[in-house]
């Protein structure tokens, strides 16, 4: 979709009022253009002696209403000018009203769709764009487009119409004065055009630099604890300074290009105005044109040069808007995840089979290399392995955050790719590695997976996750605000809250992705036993680096560099050579020494 099609699509339903806004602008420019004609008639025919050419104007000025005297005629001229100003204002109001309604609607729809695309895009999207950049595209880029639509685009019609009308009137009044008045217009236009070409690239670079700056800022605010804990303030400040410097230089270049353009454009405009006044006065003295014509041309030259100069501004804003639209369009054209496609509305039992599964985030670099295992409904299965061995990747495949490249994955005998993503995610509850909480109160955070949960259910799941006592110690209890703006929870409290949030909904398959690492082993065991007691048929998948966490599992799958190296129960694995036995020995020694 090109830029025009994009704007046109989002203006649906508001195109007519936007057209009215352009129409009102054109009408108001007609009234603007008439005023100097009234002044010319006043000077030449009311103060001077030339007869009024137009019949109806003659009739208007000789109306008996104000007596046919000079002061009566002057009063009529003044009233006409006042009426023209009122009408200009009225139509400018209509233009502002309609253009704002259309542009605000456009901006809102763009933001809505950008947000929905961000939420619905597949997982690759988040590794492609940085969060600061995404925020900038949804805010300042949309704002640039909105401003262009509400101001500049409406002005294009007015500018072209005004220039055309003024040129027509000038050439009808005096050919030679019109020629003198327009001699520099082509030069002015060419300068404007070349400026527009140059400035577009500069705007793009400045926009990208601003996005980089926002990203650094956003990262530092989110990770302020890490920054402070490692005393990285100076390093981060320097990093910010470099980006800030780059943005300042690019912005400064832009301002400089603008300054050069406006000064050159001012010079041409002043020369042009001066020529009209000097040569026009000479013609007036020689009585080749009337004084009224000179006065009218003095007004018209300002009015003509203004739209041409305005065109420069419109062109430069057009450049900026094109860049913003391209950045917005990039996000909007990202492929959306179709979470509904496939078998829907089924309750899974949790029989999971992986047969020679291969997967790589980049196809040429496999992360999982021929993984095979089988999990039966109701079993607790643990994945154990060194960091980066592919444990979380297996979970991502199960949730269809990514689709596997080769082999076969089935749940309850159905190939994974045939089950809709929505159904899968409604059946698989995950407690992720990072325990992110929203800026809401504890109760609302727990209810996120089950909006209609009762207060009793919230308390019950908090008790199961062994976090109820901690919550009751907070002053506001379940009403305590957590997340970015709320109270600071310990790592273990956050983890247990995310567990409560997941178990409140009874998923047939439950996954703990290293999500009890900040909880002591005793509490961990207690939590898992409580969960197990609640649903015996639930399939549970555990990922942990602790032998004590996985040793009671029905099956332990040991992974190394994307391959299954051992598989079996704890008793079986400690009798086999390999990573599991090695880690068990080390952790046993440490345990014995600390006891
Ligand atoms: N989104 C991604 N894009 C590209 N590579 C990725 C992505 N996520 C993980 N990886 C890579 O895939 C490999 C396996 O990562 P994974 O997170 O599955 O390991 P893990 O066994 O869960 O590690 P840990 O125990 O440290 O959590 C790593 O080399 C990692 O760098």
Automatic annotation (TrEMBL):
Residues 19-320 form the ABC transmembrane type-1 domain. Keywords: ATP-binding, Cell membrane, Membrane, Nucleotide-binding, Transmembrane, Transmembrane helix, Transport. CDD domains: ABC_6TM_YknU_like (cd18542). It comes from the Bacteria. One of its GO terms (molecular function) is ABC-type oligopeptide transporter activity. Residues 352-586 form the ABC transporter domain. It is found in: Cell membrane. It is a multi-pass membrane protein. Pfam families: ABC_membrane, ABC_tran. SMART domains: AAA. InterPro entries: AAA+_ATPase, ABC1_TM_dom, ABC1_TM_sf, ABC_transporter-like_ATP-bd, ABC_transporter-like_CS, P-loop_NTPase, Type_1_exporter. One of its GO terms (cellular component) is plasma membrane. This is ATP-binding cassette, subfamily B. It comes from Thermosipho atlanticus DSM 15807.
